[in-house]
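Bumping my old thread because nobody answered last time. Still need a sequence for this structure:
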């Protein structure tokens, strides 16, 4: 799926909420987002990504200029994950 996201030029919203993708899934999505230029909304609510997954996602936000909205509720990202996200948005 991450390869499809990487080379997809039409998808604007990706909702993976309530799927147990975990940290590994967040890592793959993060890699794909770095070269995706159409996705504007990413919903990863309750996907069990934790702080490490949030850190991966935050790194992709730095390289992705089209992603404007993402949802991370219910992932227990803690202070470290939240800090990574906030730093990527500055």
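Sorry it took so long. Here it is:
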């Amino acid at each position: 799926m991450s390869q499809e996201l990487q080379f997809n030029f039409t998808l604007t919203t990706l909702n993976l909420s309530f799927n147990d993708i975990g940290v590994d899934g967040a890592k793959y999505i993060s890699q794909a987002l770095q070269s995706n230029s159409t996705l504007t909304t990413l919903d990863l609510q309750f996907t069990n990504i934790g702080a490490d997954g949030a850190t991966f996602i935050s790194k992709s936000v730095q390289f992705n200029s089209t992603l404007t909205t993402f949802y991370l509720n219910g992932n227990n990202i803690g202070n470290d994950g939240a800090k990574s996200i906030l730093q990527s948005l500055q």
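The radius of gyration is 12 Å. Let me know if any region looks off to you.
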